[in-house]
Structure formats: structure tokens, C-alpha cells
Input
Amino acid sequence: MHFSRKRLFAIGLLLLFFLSLLFGNSPPFRLLRTSIADPSFTLLRVSTLFLNDLLYLSRNSRLVGENRLLKRKVALLKEEVSSLQEDLQQSHRFSLFSEFQKAHSETRGLFCRIIGRDPSRWNQIILLDKGKKEGLQEDMAVLGMEGLVGRLIQVEESWSKALLITDPNSKVGAVLERSREVGLLVGESRGLLFMEYLSPGADVREGDRVLTAGFGEIFPKGIVIGEVVGFGRREEDLLMYALVKPIERLSQLEEVLCVQR
Output
């Protein structure tokens, strides 16, 4: 019983001490509270900041990963759209070439891809991916989606070389669609065509379409070549001439159709 009173007395003193510590206003008690509480608050604040930083890094790392994944998906979608657009354009080109062959049943043709250009005459000669083994022959006409491009000048076993109509060595018999005036188209250095030997009284207007005349055995008749962008009269013999812009953008060709009459 005596031992129990001592225990109760000690517990009471401890309780009184803690109550005084918590609620006492005297300087010793305030100082003691501060010395105990400040480290605890500091530890709590540091722990909180540390946990916040961990949460931020975790969340930020997840967002960075998600952002990278989204960027990769966007890149793949762009590649897919680009591929689909290319397939669509190629299908359209095939369709145009098929329509041409139906409209010119007297010709036979072969679809070819452009695989390069002659370095020595970059803007005048193109290289094709087919040759003798596919049935190509020299002097076959070469067409684009809209009209005449040139003719084959060299055919090897698996590749060929075509001379574009803008080359000075290219010559094509041509006719003005509206007035039916006939002349000779010669390539010239500015990427245009020079239509010469028109009669002195030839009816020529800007915007007139120029077609193949069908002379010889190379170019089928009635293929669009281009349109007149200028004309004049030669002083020496008074013959008319015309400047013709090709209907095809020869620098942007990707596929062509090689045809034979």
C-alpha cells in the first residue's frame, strides 16, 4: 500500500509537470516548451517538404513519361497520315494514266518510276526504273499525269534515260488546239518551249493549248504539251513564233508513262 502511494505521487508529479509545461506562462516553462517544440516542428516541416518533393518528383516523372509517349504516338500518326497521303496521290496518278490509256487505245504503255537525274544535265534528263526486259524501247514517248514529258533516248536492260521536252535537243511537231496552226516545238534554256515555223498570218493567242501533231512514229496525236504564254514575229522572214509553258512541272515528276504508237 505504501508502494502504491509512492507510485501515485510520482505519477501526479509527472502529470503536474506536463500540465505546467503545456499551460504554464512563466519564463522557464515557456523556454522549456520552445526548446522541445521547435526541433519537433522543424523535423515535421523538413519531413513534410521532403515528402512533398518526393510526391512532386514522382508525379513529374510520370508526366514526363506520359508526354514522351504522347509525342511518340503523334509522330507515328503523322507518319501514317503521310504514308496514306502518298498512297492516295499514287493511286490518283495510276488512275490518270489508266484513263489516258483507255482514251488512246492505239498506244501501249508502261508505268515507270523516276529513280534519278543525269548530273550533267540535271533539269533535262531523267532516269527510269525499267528497261529492255520490261519492253521499253528507244524513242518511246514519255508522259506525265497532265501531258507530254519527253522521249526515251537510251534503254538498258533494267533502266532507261529520257530526254525532257525542254532540252534544246528536243523537237516535237505541235498544233495549236484552237486555230489548228502547226509548228515545231523546240526546248529552250529557260524551261519553256519555242514554237517556230508558224505561218506569217498565224492566229496565236496567249492561253492557247498546244498539242502533239502526231507527225512521225514517236508521239501520239493530241497529247497536251502546254499553253502559249507569249508570241511574236521574226524580222528575217516574218514567220510567227510562240513561247509555250509545259503543262507538266518537269522538276517535280515522280512517275511517268512510257508509250509506243
Notes: The chain has a mean pLDDT of 79. The domain at 104-261 is CATH 2.40.10.340 (Thrombin, subunit H).
